[in-house]
Amino acid sequence: MRYISTRGQAPAVGFVDAVLAGLAPDGGLYVPETWPTFTPEEIAGFAGRPYAEVAAAVIGAFAGDEIEPAELLEMCREAYATFNHPAVVPLVQIAPHAFLAELFHGPSLAFKDVAMQILARLYDHILGRQQRLQTIVCATSGDTGGAAVEAFRGRKNVKVVALFPEGRISEVQRRFMTAATEANVACVAVQGTFDDCQAIVKQTFQDKVLRQAVDLSGVNSINFARIAAQAVYYFTSAVALGAPHRPVSFCVPSGNFGDAFAGYVASRMGLPVAKIVVATNSNDILARTFQEGRYTRSVVQPTISPAMDIQSASNFERLYFEGVEREPVETARAFEAFATAGLIDIPPTAFAAMKAMFRGIAVGEDETRRTIVATLNETGELIDPHTAVGVAALKRSPDVEGPIVVLSTAHAAKFPEDVAKACGVTPELPRGAADLAGRPERYDRLPAETETIKAYVRAFAEA
């Protein structure tokens, strides 16, 4: 299995090199040269199997012969043993044809754990074999950083620098990063937005001297291994609801588009996905894109669903690349222009292909709060604001085919103040994280300046 850049100016690499690199050297994102597929019989065979076994099969299809199947299966078993539910991603029914896929039973109580726990073990396996030390830099809008810190803390082959926008994530989200005491972890409160943090990470990766000096890698959803790991729960959820014998739809709270793109990946692998509803908050770049055919950056608005406060969804480049029939010159032109002008007019043929799979719906703050209350009253489920955005979009999608699964992306206890303000009930942290508020924090504050943060990364990596 070979991986190519969406911008076409980087050589094809294998799975291992794509994982360790994260971002392609030409600024593009890696995608498989060809999509691996499962037959309907193979998909049906996932029914009733442990989550780790399905994960090993799906991720193994992308790893090819670069990782031994038995070793990958053992890594998956170790990764998903960290979850506090035996199903890893259980389904909860909330309406006759509607379900929540609870993605928050991992160590940091967010869906990012599903991919990050296996990614950390992939890094350990690969870097240990190569006797390398890498520096990971990640930007987080709330949950990626906590999941990365939980997954990589204390590991001897990796140092982690997590950038988060100061004052724009919840206290619980912040503490999952900043309470780490291990010497291989550094956290930085950036005086800006998540889009600032994400742009700094991309610019850091384009500094070839720094990239080589600290052996830089990235675990944001720019890393294709994250997408592959997230595709797994599309398979397990859909098979539990009758796939491949009937199509299943998904409603995905989305900011950076990685989680929704993983559903597209599952469909390319043979899973019958009828529709993916992309649910955004008032930072509605993706909702507007799938409604109007224009990808237009606006000003980031702070909301009660902060992990979605994004106006530059990095994984959209992968979908655009597929929509323009894998034309790298056009993809590079479009996204280089977007970096400066903040606008892409999607070609009509590409837009038609996108609309065949995706629908975009934006949900405001009042509707989000009302949905938290209504879901509690109607089902007894206490949901976080991001999941509420997904459930609200579900209620506005009565025509979507088949059973529909809302991806419940975070535990309500990660946003206790906003949930309590909405419905009067304060969610409690699970037992393993109950003492989080009492742990001392450790982080640095820096301006949203690329050169300042590059110097910080280099000093930490070389210390």
Total DSSP E strands: 16
Q: Kindly report the spatial arrangement of strands forming the biggest sheet.
A: 4-5-15-10-11-14
Number of helices: 19
The chain-level structural class is alpha/beta
- What is the C-level CATH assignment of the domain at 91-109 and 224-423? Alpha Beta
Termini gap: 36 Å
Percentage of residues assigned to helices: 40-55%
Coarse morphology: globular
**Radius of gyration over C-alpha positions, nearest whole angstrom:** 20 Å
The largest sheet is: 6 strands, mixed
Q: What is the level-2 CATH architecture name of the domain at 91-109 and 224-423?
A: 3-Layer(aba) Sandwich
Average pLDDT over all residues: 95
Question: How big a fraction of the residues is strand?
Answer: 15-25%
Which regions are unreliable across 5 or more consecutive residues at pLDDT < 50? none
Write a brief caption for the model.
With 463 residues, this protein is an alpha/beta fold.
Explain the overall architecture:
Helix 3 packs across helix 10 (224-240) and helix 16 crosses helix 18 (416-423). Strand 1 and strand 2 (13-14) form a beta hairpin. The two termini are 36 Å apart. This protein has helices spanning 15-21, 40-44, 51-63, 69-80, 112-130, 144-152, 171-178, 194-205, 208-213, 224-240, 258-268, 285-292, 316-323, 328-341, 348-357, 365-379, 385-395, 416-423, 450-462, and strands at residues 2-5, 13-14, 30-32, 91-95, 98-102, 134-139, 158-165, 185-191, 216-217, 248-253, 273-280, 294-296, 343-345, 358-362, 404-408, 444-447. The chain has a 6-stranded mixed beta sheet, with helices on both faces. The protein contains 19 helices and 16 strands. The chain has 463 residues and is α/β, with parallel strands linked by helices. It has a domain at 91-109 and 224-423: 3-Layer(aba) Sandwich (Rossmann fold), CATH 3.40.50.
